Amino acid sequence: MTLTTGGAPPRIRDPHGSLHRMLWIGGAQWAGKTTVAELIAEQHGLTVYHYDYHDARGHQDRRIARRVARGEPVADPTPDQAWLDRSPEEMAAETLAGFPVRFEWALDDLRALFTGRPAIAEGWGLRPELVAPLLDSPRRMAVLVPTEDFRQRQLRTYPRAGTLKVPVSDPARAQANRVARDRLVAEDAARNARRLGIRVIEVDGTLDAAAVAAAVAEQFAPYLDYLDKA
User: Residues of 73-106 as b/e, b for ≥16 C-beta within 10 angstroms?
Assistant: First the structure.
């Protein structure tokens, strides 16, 4: 199925209209989603919702409550359990399986937001297959994924990407597992975006952040042009 432009999005609870006015940036880790969202927001006077920040902090109580309701251990897995005891394929499958519930928590955050202008939601958990039912046009979303060369550059130059900052018994293997997991999750995002007719922008390092932001802004142009003319 490919999204088509025009028409009303399906009926999804949206008390303040924020979900259907939202602009979405999804994709892979280390592709520059946060930087791009903030550059566009600064230029056009928009609000940005940072999925990663809310998911890691604001949603932890809901994560624990869900474990209790399901009869699962309340505590987070140990670092070795999280990063060493499973293959990257198993880690990626678990991450992808958890995204729908985490997305509903993000939607609850966004439902509480009211803005007369569009706002931008960015983060790797904003998966194209989850966002698609909210869209009246595929131009409301862009998916950023790094090429392998750019991923390796980020790993070399961006400390948060290049080092897993948790104590594990085998840091090198844990980091390798993390990188392989992220690669699989990124491939899934790009594959689903293309299937749904949502634009995928491959970030290869030949364009600086401002130029990538300009490309995403061009994708969002129908929703930004009228702001600049106001």
Answer: eeeeeeeeebbeebebeebbbebbeebeebbebb
- Using the CB atoms, write b or e for 172-202: b if 16+ within 10 Å: eebbebbbebbbbbbebbbebbeebbbbbbe
Residue 7: the pLDDT is 42
Look-up of token digits 């309340």:
74
Buried b (16+ CB within 10 A) or exposed e, 119-141: bbbbbbbbbbbbbbebbeebbbb
What is the pLDDT at residue 228?
60
pLDDT in tens, 77-123: 999 999 999 999 999 999 999 999 999 999 999 999 888 889 999 99
Give the length of the chain. 230
